[in-house]
Amino acid sequence: MRSLTFPRYNYISYPFGLFASTILSRLNVGSSLAKNLGWGTVINVFYIPGAIIGGLLSDRIGRRRTMALGFGIQAILGFILGGALGSIQTILPLFIVLYGIFLTLGEVGPGATIVLTSSESFPTSIRGQCLGLIAAFGKAGAAIGTAVFAPILASYGDSVYRGNQAVFLIGSGFAAAGALTSLFIIPEISNRLEDEDDAWKVYLKDNGYDIQWGDEDTKDPVGLRMSSVKT
After folding, report:
1. Would you say 178 and 110 are in contact if contact means Cβ atoms under 8 Å apart?
2. Which residue, 71, 86, 158, 172, could crosslink 178 as a Cys pair with Cβ 3.0–4.6 Å?
3. 0.90 exceeded by the pTM?
């Protein structure tokens, strides 16, 4: 289930961050490459507060709701940006702030919770393998999003408005799909890792696997005398 949201998040997060300067250069916001890169850096700084806000919310309203909230508001803002881009992009500070908030919301929701919820969904003994598989799906989304972003912009030729509008509307569509997936497909799970471990042990036992977990006989040493350790 988590593999459905990971590529959608990365499809939005990676290209919109990497191509921020490209979008700004198409708007002719600066007379030089240095200015375009500078504004692009300002936009990417908006990632930081999103991670902080998302981390705080995830413990208060839950990981799944935080993910859905971030995805949902990001989709709404993205549709506003795409639909009213003609008016918004004429006011540079407004466009930069809204673009930055668009990236912030991605970190508030999936950016702050997607790896956490994925890791909490599996027992300790198979967590690394399963999380690696989900992360691979996520990186596939990042690769696809980055690969198609520039061609989408270029497909509209000299129409800067149409190209920029298309990428925001498409990205918002992925965010809306992520919000629906978070709300209706991803289950609510406990954030206690021991619960998944216990459920996994019961599952294995019910299916005929007799497994010893850890060393129950050897006792841990009371202490270690550093004076007796030879270097």
Report:
1. yes
2. 71
3. no
